[in-house]
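Narrative summary of target 7.
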Amino acid sequence: MSSKAIAEFIGTFILVFFGVGSAVLMGDLIGFQGIAFAFGLSIVAAAYGFGVISGAQLNPAVSLGFLASGRLTMGDFVTYCIAQILGAIAGAAVIYVIASGKADYSIAANGLGQNGFGEGYNGGYTMMSAFVFEFVATFLFVTVILGATQSDAPVGFGGLAIGLTLTGIHLVGIDVTGVSVNPARSIGPAIFAGGAALSQLWLFLLAPLAGGLLAGMLHGAGITRSPHAQPKGFR
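Modeled conformation, tokenized:
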């Protein structure tokens, strides 16, 4: 396994362990705001820890954006996506093992931080609301990532800008979908939670990938890219 694949695996594991873990293990104590910051901080940690190796994309939608913009090869895209999904599954598995050690925990009753929509899930938002949120939020997220990692962006601040953006996205959307903007993050918990999490998983694959693709295409066309920028990873 390449160093890039290992970095993406561990980085995505960190994202799920911090983010999903905060929701499952501490959600009642820290609330939506605390969960939002846990997801954001996980990106900051992974970006500065692994960005120099793989770019710390940690997200198939982000990787698709980099591919569409011409800043990632098809070979790396496939490798990254596989590593990201496996990292998310591993992270969800560890959280499940930890949560199962609590006497009153049940995955059927308490869940595993899975994404969802509709009646019985958080605010009960419709499928259309969920799709629009995930598409728009992912588009904005990937646009920020591509911009913050341009060669002429302020040096050393990319990971912080991206982490804060993810925090803001969660502050807006946890009550809508639990916030995916990342197919790997959705796949990991859904595999263990089953039921509605699996049946609704298609939305958390399609909407983020579509948003990431559009962001990458606009960046590649120079619409959201500095005219003097050269491709560069997290710094």
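Residues 3-220 form a domain with the Glycerol uptake facilitator protein fold (CATH 1.20.1080.10).
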